[in-house]
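W.,

You were right to be curious about this one. When I first looked at the sequence I had no strong expectations either way, so I just let the prediction run and decided to look at it fresh. Below is the sequence, 366 residues in total, followed by the output.
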Amino acid sequence: MGEGDSREFDIVPARDARLVFQLRVRNSASKNSPHRLSRTGTAVGVAGYTCDAYRWPMGADQISLSLMVRHKLPASHPALAGVSVAAHMVLLDRAGSPAPSVGKASAMDASDSISGGCSLRATRDDVEKFCVVDDYFVLLCSVDIVTTMGGNKPSSAPAPLNEEELTDLGHGLATMLDNLDLTDVRFDVDGESFSAHRLVLAARSPVFRAELYGPMAESKMTSITIHDVKASTFRYMLHYMYHGSLPNSDEKGKDPLSAVDHQHLLVAADRYGVERLKGLCERKLCDDFTTVDTVVSMLALAEERACSKLKARCFDFLAKGENFKMVGTTPEYLHLMQSIPSLMLQVRNRFNFNIAHPDVIMNPPS
């Protein structure tokens, strides 16, 4: 397994977006050499960081791509303390619009060798059906470098607003949204219409930034249809983008968002690169919604969306008391284990099951 022909990839900088670019991949080249690793040269470079794209061996019917961000300094260098890197990838359809429902993207954790990154997997059939034009499919890629502390850093950030200032800012933005003041784009989602401000959405989401200000068709449109997202989920995501928080508890102190609402919102935040909202939903699911009835769906979500904290919380819950015996024989749990063999192996290793007997997942030792 060696590096492939770099002509398989083509880097296309997006207009007026220093950390947003398009990655063009030649479909036939990746299809004719499905078992060979291929990579680009440096895609973008900023603040001492470089970004490379890889195609991993997956077979002719699957596509696996990764974006890896590195710094010229080692990860442990003091100059990188307080600096985080978030990357995002989304396939574009034949019209040049984001198609987050094609393929599954997940964040890559930082390590000694990389500062961060993103991976995307998709079936070849879906990519060819919705995305391939003239033997190429295109991914919209973005890299955000966030500094949370002052000092000698590759990039700097202004001092954070205090809680009162954030509340005032969120209230002012929300008032503009509620009154439709200066809104300049409308979204049609699941039969409902939402008006918003391009600048606010672009500041919150790299996908919206590229969609609303990049070279796509949507940048010239005032009405955009979004598929595969519930209207309530989009409403909650808009609320977060304007307030910096989710809706407060109701008059009885009950959280207005259910476990299912948080799961749907986590998926939407992941698709649109709203990383802090994704983290907020993950923490909420960990703290308030891990039950016998929800743990299977949350474990599936954690595996699909690379939520390591949520996965660890699900494992901890299953290891407590009689929880595993109550969950481990349900049809939902058995289907999940059969669908994701790698997850089954993790469960066996966690609970010290005997791998020689597959049915031990169904009948854990007492």
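Here's what jumped out at me. The first strand starts at residue 9 and ends at 13. And, maybe more interesting for your project: Residues 1-6, 11-18, 149-163, 354-366 have pLDDT under 50 and may be disordered.

Coffee later to discuss?

I.
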